[in-house]
Give the backbone structure.
Amino acid sequence: MVQSAEVVIVGGGIVGASIAYHLTSAGCRDVVILERESHQGKGSTGKSMGGVRAQFSTPSSIRMSLYSIPFFRDFEERLGYPSGYRPQGYLLMATNQRQMGYLRSNVVIQRASGLETVELVTTEDIVRTVPQVRADDIVGGTFCSTDGFVDPYSVMTGFTLRACDQGARVFRDAEVIAIDRDSNGVSGVRTSAGSIATRTVVNATGAWSARVAKMAGLDLPVEPLRRMLVPTEPFDKISHGAPMTIDLATGFHFRPEGLGLLMAWCDPEEKPSFNTNFDRAFVEKVLTLGVARVPVLEQVEVNPSRAWAGLYEMTPDHHPILGAAPGIAGLYLASGFSGHGVMHSPATGKIMADLILKGTTDLIDARLLDYNRFAEGRMIQETAVF
Ligand SMILES: Cc1cc2nc3c(=O)[nH]c(=O)nc-3n(C[C@H](O)[C@H](O)[C@H](O)COP(=O)(O)OP(=O)(O)OC[C@H]3O[C@@H](n4cnc5c(N)ncnc54)[C@H](O)[C@@H]3O)c2cc1C
């Protein structure tokens, strides 16, 4: 463990790793990542579905995707490590005019924000794209061809390796247990493996970030929420080139994964908690919704012991909280991605490096995502959460 560092990033998931990469790329080389686990990726990053999309409902979410998706596309060229980006698209399917109106108004916002690859699609287009879909009640949808999937673990590893080449150091088995302050603000962190003096601490601890913020006396409105994923056994009745396919009627969605599929659904009954046990009853629930929309799923085989659960990190408006913590000089926040932290990790790294090193960023209007928006009634709701 080092004695001091210019910047200490708490949390070695995909977000902490991207921040370290962007800071060191901008010339700030004395950067330390502290991860409490024996290896990185054991938080939400290693549990993610890996979906990346620009089909959001607010300009700031869309702009973060417009930085991030080309970054994933060029990742290997820039960082010498694969991101696993597969531009197979996201297909959103509507079953009534209210949902269709919602999709139409999102497309207007997406195009105005600079997204050129999104289009409204007809029921016939949907059936051409995923012929196995039961389409008798579908009224249309949207498709964005540059949306798709990445390998979150590989992206995290690529960011970490390049950050380390550029001067960063990673300490694992180093749980931050206290954040020290003096009259000038943050003065250091204490960990299970020793103490580090620093004037800059970044809280990138995902679903656990409210606990870490509390160590500096800050209440952070980020709540953990369990999400479960169910992989199927090898299945070739649906193309492995299919998009992420989302049924807006129920929220059921699936995408190809390996030789089979990965199925998901956000259970509205789920309450905030740190529970990451997979509930076997979920297999029945997700399959019932799945078969109703894609009847051929009746034939999939599922081994429940291969399914898993992880945590979303929810904020009241489903946008992350990025930037300086008010009243605590040197403390920075980068969490609350509300289930979008993988896809927005490149933009988050860039925004945080800009804010830490220059105090400003031109990637987004940073004020929209600051901590004070909650107290000042400036929340902006992101409604495209699946
Ligand atoms: C089932 C599921 C599906 C998802 N699907 C998608 C998707 O399709 N697309 C998408 O973009 N996002 C998705 N997400 C969300 C995404 O995984 C997260 O938003 C993202 O991984 C957040 O990254 P992070 O680095 O902030 O957090 P994490 O990966 O959780 O990393 C935080 C790290 O902080 C460490 N830590 C915590 N406390 C301390 C401490 N005191 N000291 C030191 N270290 C500490 C933890 O061990 C952890 O490694 C999904 C999440 C789940 C659970």
Q: What stands out?
A: The domain at 7-49+152-222+316-373 is CATH 3.50.50.60 (FAD/NAD(P)-binding domain). The chain has nine helices and 19 strands. The chain has two domains: 7-49+152-222+316-373, 85-147+226-313.
